[in-house]
Design a protein that fits this description.
single chain, 14 strands, 182 residues, Pnp Oxidase, Chain A, mainly beta, binds flavin mononucleotide, 12% helix
Length: 182
């Protein structure tokens, strides 16, 4: 195996999600790659540029949503990344729904939705990392298998460098791929 040094910036892959917040009383969504888990607790982080419209809504209300779009929603997802809520009203691009537990909109069309309450805010360069406790999770019934979301049915959008990709196959089960006697 020959390795080539290709620089010092991250290329991914990342899952593309839509971060949601209420801004000036309306839903606003921005696609992000900077999201993930931080521990075994039910906690997610999102990292948003300070100048984004969505960022102001998360800071004001203390809630955000993470919506996992399937690849069929790519055109709308990409559009939300091309325009800012400062200039373009993105409230009706998707249908929004709410949970009484917190003021952040979630996207009906996205197969998986997390509503999070901000528990920590970390400034990082010109971004803000919001760490949020998950207060509710929703999923489209047709994406569930044994009560849990199935990755192939969700078909998330994978981002790497400047390309979007989708999932092809399931290649194993956790702890069942390796042999027991190491
Ligand atoms: C695929 C993709 C991934 C992105 N990832 C991030 C990200 O991780 N963090 C971020 O702050 N902006 C990210 N952006 C940029 C914002 O989505 C974009 O600037 C958006 O228009 C901001 O909208 P708003 O001003 O309405 O909040 C990404 C855009 C795209 C298309």
């Amino acid at each position: 195996m020959t390795k080539t040094k290709i620089g010092s910036i991250p290329f991914g892959p990342y899952i593309t999600v839509l971060a949601g917040a209420t801004v000036k009383g309306k839903p606003n969504y921005a696609p992000i790659g900077a999201y993930g888990v931080v521990s075994q607790k039910p906690v997610l982080y999102i990292s948003l540029k300070n100048s984004h419209y969505t960022t102001s809504g998360v800071a004001e209300h203390g809630f955000f949503s993470v919506n996992i779009p399937s690849s069929e929603l790519l055109e709308k997802v990409d559009f939300c990344g091309r325009v800012s809520g400062f200039k373009t009203d993105k409230a009706t691009i998707f249908d929004s729904f709410y949970d009484e537990a917190g003021n952040a909109p979630m996207i009906t069309e996205c197969p998986v939705n997390y509503l999070c309450r901000v528990i920590q805010t970390i400034p990082i360069f010109d971004f803000t990392m919001f760490i949020g406790e998950i207060v509710s999770v929703y999923a489209n019934e047709d994406c569930l298998e044994n009560g849990k979301p199935n990755a192939l049915k969700v078909n998330p959008i994978i981002l790497m460098d400047s390309g979007y990709f989708d999932l092809k196959d399931r290649i194993g089960s956790v702890f069942k791929v390796c042999s027991a006697n190491k």
